[in-house]
Amino acid sequence: MNIQKIGFYGVLLAITIAAPFLFPNYSTQLATLWLFIIVSMTWDMTGGQMGYNSLGNIFFYGTGMYVAAVISIGLVYDVGEYTGAAGGGKYDFTNEQYIIGFVLGSLGAGIFCAISAFILGYVLFGLRGPYFAIGTLGTAIAAGELVSNWDWVGGGQGITLPVYGGDFDQTKLFIYFAFAITGVVLFIFLKWLYQTRFGAAMNAIRDDEEKAEAMGIHTMRYKLVAWSMSAFFIGVVGGISAFQLISFEPLESAYQTINLGIFMVVCVLLGGKGTLWGPIIGAIAFQVFKEVTWNYFLGWQWVALGALIVVTVVYFQDGLMGWLKHTKPEWFGLTVDEKESEARETGKAGAAAQ
């Protein structure tokens, strides 16, 4: 890695650390930005890098929320009594219990979601194209309905998690850095992964799965592992989100297929599928767009979102990253030899003369 790249990543890291201190009133929005970045990068692992467009990754997010809540509560109290509609007492958590529950709950959510993805993948990866997308969407919707009717985890009323006993601003800062650390770890992991044979195999599946199988690539194995890795990180941020929201319910907060489930796909399309930076750029652009429309054009925000999708699909089919590569190739080190360029122009002129 050259000095320029080291400096670039150093500046980004400094901005990440300083952001909640420079803009303390926007720490929640900054944490949400990291959430969008993470779910977009994880969606692109299968949708962009492997060519399997999922509409049900929100399943892992919602499941992560509930698993983290059950683990954190279960370490101290009986879950069924805690979530019971009748209540039955006051439930307090010490700061130590809160921190332990947060860490173990989030990690446990990631592990549970990774295992779930591996198991579900044996069925869903038998589908391809739009059938896979519909299958994953159906799984997420079904999960939301099942949880909303499961009284042990609160049913339709959801769960209210314990609150950290310290200062509320400290809690928001803690949540922000939990998201940020997860996002940085994911970025480093994906930057390494996409340069390995595993990353090449994912791209081979995307380009032509039949040929990849003929070349001896065990496509099902790669698909299961890739989706499980994606689900792990989504489960972790789902667990973190549970503590951020404090109180959440299944259909509107956890398994929100028409909100975050769509947003993560839009972020990737906006930034550029199949690229490392595309989901990040798309998530940042979408978060800015969302904050502006949701605050200043309330009532028309979904119309604006639809217009954004149409403009992206029609004019930026390769996303912002693809558009920049075509317009500013030198930014990506994509230079064309002058002689080769002249040869091409000569060839075109000769063909036109004939």
SSE layout and pairing:
Blueprint: H1 3-22, H2 27-47, H3 58-74, H4 79-83, H5 95-124, H6 130-148, E1 159-160, H7 168-193, H8 197-207, H9 209-214, H10 219-245, E2 247-248, H11 250-254, H12 260-271, H13 278-296, H14 301-315, H15 319-327, H16 338-353
Antiparallel strand pairs: 1-2
Helix pairs in contact: 2-7, 2-10, 2-12, 2-13, 3-5, 3-6, 3-10, 5-10, 7-10, 8-10, 12-13, 12-15
Question: Which tags fit this structure?
Answer:
single chain, 354 residues, mainly alpha, ABC transporter involved in vitamin B12 uptake, BtuC, two-stranded antiparallel ribbon, 16 helices, globular
Strand residues, percent: under 5%
Major β-sheet profile? 2 strands, antiparallel
Based on helices, strands and strand pairing, what is the structural class? mainly alpha
> Widest sheet: strand order?
1-2
> Distance N terminus to C terminus?
49 Å
Overall average residue pLDDT: 87
CATH architecture of the largest domain: Orthogonal Bundle
If helices are DSSP runs of H or I spanning 4 or more residues, what is the number of helices? 16
Rg estimate, integer Å: 22 Å
List how many beta strands DSSP finds: 2
Helix content: over 70%
Shape: globular
Taken together, the total number of domains comes to 2
* Low-pLDDT ranges: 338-354
